[in-house]
Specification:
alpha+beta; Rossmann fold; 2 helices; 4 strands; Adenine methyltransferase
Amino acid sequence: MESCGGGAVFCNPPYGREVGKWVRKAYEEAQRGATVVLLIPARTDTTYFHDYIYGRAEIRFVRGRLRFTDEEGKAYAAAPFPSMVVIYNGNKEVQE
């Protein structure tokens, strides 16, 4: 396997029904040694959370609701759900 250059990959996938596919791909790449950081909705009741995140990645819950701004600095309404940062640190063990 070729090295990916030693850097981390950050991914803020589209929020919706397909987010589980992005999580699975991030998990699979981490199994190959990549460091992957995801910013996703904190949906702890989903199958992908239990199959690919819980006990397999570092989880940091974001306090409050995220607000995004566009290139001109215009702020949009806060997200209607909580968010989390999921960190796959290559194939290192997760500390619980």
